[in-house]
Amino acid sequence: MRLTEYNKKRDFDISTEPKGKMAKTKIQNLKFVMQKHNARNLHYDFRLEHKGVLVSWAVPKGISLDPKVKRLAVHVEDHPLDYANFEGVIPKGEYGAGTVQIWDSGNYYSLKDFSKGLKNGELKIVLNGKKLKGEFHLIRTKDNQWLIFKSKDQFSENETPTNKKSKTKQSKNPFDKVSVELAELSNTIPSGKDWLFETKYDGYRIVAFVENGRVKLATRNNNDYTQKFASIEKALKRHFKDSAVVLDGEIVVVDSSGRSDFSALQNSIKTGKQDFVYCIFDLLAFGGEDLRQEKLQIRKELLRKCLRGCPDNLIFSDYVIGKGKQTFALAKKLGLEGVIAKKIDSTYTGTRSGNWLKIKCYKRQEFVIGGYTTTDKNENLSALLLGYYDQNKLIYVGKVGTGFNQSKRQELRQLFEKHKSDKSYFSDSIKSNEKITYLKPKLVAEIQFAEITKSGNIRQGSFVDIRDDKPPKDVKLEMANEQDN
Predict the structure, then answer these.
(1) 429: which residues sit within 8 A by CB, 6+ positions away?
(2) Whole-model pTM over 0.90
(3) Around 395, how many Cα atoms within 13 Å sit in the side-chain half-sphere?
(4) What tens digit of pLDDT does each residue of 218-265 get?
(5) What whole-number distance in Å separates Cα of residue 55 and Cα of residue 49?
(6) Alpha carbon 329 to its chain's center
(7) Nearest to 381 by CA among 405, 357, 356
(8) Hey, which residues are catalytic here?
């Protein structure tokens, strides 16, 4: 194919992808790369250096290390050799729009003549990457459709975990409650390869306890949300069957751009839509063994193996090591809430220890609703009166009067009826020209805002939604250092 088709499909004044230029042909130290491509549909792109270009396949489900599992690989246009180093965002409207990340890379060699094999539809190669190692086959079945699969060798694995932990005969989890690891808010992105970076999801933090076909989905305060997320319960039952496992992650609903959307999550809970996705980022126990004292990266890689071949609504929360500033910049471009930084060698302490940091693209946190105001124009609801707890005192932080339409105003007023109070629970008196109705501090709202002023008030606040997974007494003012990102 060479690079004519590649160049035709791209506008290089818009896209940051490398221009299609032929490189010098090599016969040794040939490159391969596997890129994770989150476009209209998440898939993987597998590329092999050959005669100055990257011969490329789109692999929808990625490459399995199980020799019994054959995966579809669609032969696409050749890519320039520089594409092996490409990571970034392909802009909306461009061919392949979405994010591209390097999932694995290294060198390879062909066991047979590559040019003949490409023409005849049969390749046999040996990969030497960090994740993909050993012998693989590519067989053409029809037109541009191929199958890719692993040969049985010392690097092959079964789809179900075969590590020592999975062989234990124990089928009961070592604990049925857990204090979750919490992230400290930070304005500083840590540097160096001692940190890994993940997406910050906008959903419900859920710990899944799976044991002998039974599933419990618990919030960080151990409230049982299993019935709310029945589709996730079903997927976990099917994938883990007779296993015992404890998982930590976030249940979300994603929008058309692949971003997690908290309001959409709340709507799906109310309507019973069940379009939930469980983004799993930690493995706390497996096969009856408590893994919380294992190093984070070991837990992550065991988790990756556990989730191979899982249903589509169970997702391994992938990560990059180092590259914190680049990861944060990418999150900003994509309109994500932020990133989570985690120390690679940290254990799971179940506290806010500083081993996990959250770096937000914009300011957002929970506040307690202590009352609301009404006006002649907005008889249902004009603004929320908000606060946070400091040493058991409810500190007033200001009013928020945007972020809800008339339907949401009516819905909130109905919710407020059973929490009305004759007195204020705020530690200070509230002055307002609008009519105030005070509430018992039983409800928590997610609020996005520009800043907390020096006088302690929210500026440019906007209501996101009600959170029923966090108790009001746990709502504190999140503080971060003032260094620039």
Answers:
(1) none
(2) no
(3) 14
(4) 998 889 999 999 999 999 999 998 789 999 999 999 887 778 888 889
(5) 6
(6) 16
(7) 405
(8) 200
